[in-house]
Design brief:
Layout: H1 12-20, H2 49-58, H3 87-93, E1 96-100, E2 111-117, H4 123-138, H5 145-161, E3 166-175, E4 183-191, E5 212-218, H6 227-241, E6 247-253, H7 257-265, E7 269-273, E8 286-292
Antiparallel strand pairs: 1-2, 2-3, 3-4, 4-5, 6-8, 7-8
Helix pairs in contact: 4-5
Length: 298
């Protein structure tokens, strides 16, 4: 099955909504409390792009690179590692390599996709990919993508610090027969337990103690090559190896038929749907979907 022609559903509305509705003209603090203090939900409607643009105009480009908070994966395992005694080592060793053919409408000669946890030096590229996908869904002009990337980078760095409770997977694609470095093709965030759960998740709210997939994005030029499908499967493979709770959750907007069909084919079922009153907050209605993972991914 081909990857959806539109970006996979993101949960970055929960990441950025404190900035969208903040009245402060100053730069955001990179502390974790900054990102989850506002309970207003960001809409993906075109009308909500205007407050975003007004806010982005307040931000000046950072004059110096922001420090990246180290992740437990960058150092020795911390005391009390959970999700099994070897949780951090499982993350360090996790790799999924897939050979992609030229089918699915993506053209090209096919190639190879490697999915693994994000490294510290890949933070900028990952934030850029997420910012581009978010801007596309929000109808934000391209000139504001660097500022979005700045905000997203702070969030991703904060989340990565919580490993192994949270992890950010990235996928690199190399076309068959080409030379040079592989290009970043996709990314996804996984909350593995209650300590890694997002403090302001989208509605309907998933159980905090269960693994949750969000912020999935596939590079626009590489869609329709089954990359989204293999990214989803890699998330499930990692959760199985980490011995998390077996019920995994994700969100899908009601209007997004192609991703919805993909999730259904992967075994996800709707467990709750946003009520119509959610429109009063200018949100799009969403499905909360869930799947019980097998003991081993085939």
């Amino acid at each position: 099955m081909g990857c959806p022609p539109t970006p996979l559903p993101l949960s970055l509305e929960c990441t950025l909504r404190p900035f969208l509705f903040s009245s402060s003209p100053h730069h955001p603090s990179p502390s974790s409390t900054t990102f989850f203090t506002n309970t207003t939900t960001l809409s993906l409607h075109k009308s909500r792009a205007l407050p975003l643009l007004k806010l982005l105009r307040r931000f000046s480009s950072p004059s110096a690179p922001q420090p990246v908070t180290p992740s437990p994966l960058d150092s020795s395992p911390w005391p009390g590692a959970f999700l099994g005694p070897d949780g951090l080592q499982v993350l360090r060793d996790f790799r999924v390599t897939v050979e992609l053919d030229h089918g699915g409408g993506g053209g090209g000669r096919g190639g190879f996709l490697e999915i693994r946890p994000m490294l510290a030096e890949e933070l900028d590229a990952t934030a850029q990919l997420l910012a581009e996908s978010f801007a596309e869904s929000m109808l934000v002009p391209a000139r504001y993508v660097p500022l979005l990337a700045f905000l997203v980078k702070q969030y991703v760095a904060e989340r990565r610090y919580l490993e192994p409770h949270v992890t950010v997977l990235v996928g690199f694609y190399r076309e068959r027969g080409t030379e040079g470095a592989a290009q970043l093709a996709c990314t996804a965030e996984i909350s593995l337990d209650a300590r890694g759960a997002n403090a302001a998740p989208p509605t309907p709210v998933p159980p905090r103690e269960c693994p949750y997939i969000c912020n999935m994005a596939v590079r626009k030029a590489l869609r329709r090559r089954r990359i989204g499908w293999h990214l989803l499967r890699a998330c499930e493979e990692l959760m199985t190896q980490m011995k998390t709770e077996r019920n995994v959750y994700l969100h899908c907007r009601v209007i997004d038929k192609v991703p919805f069909d993909m999730y259904q084919k992967a075994g996800y079922k709707v467990v709750k749907t946003d009520g119509f009153l959610v429109w009063l907050t200018l949100q799009r209605r969403k499905y909360l979907m869930s799947k019980e993972l097998p003991h081993e991914i085939g």
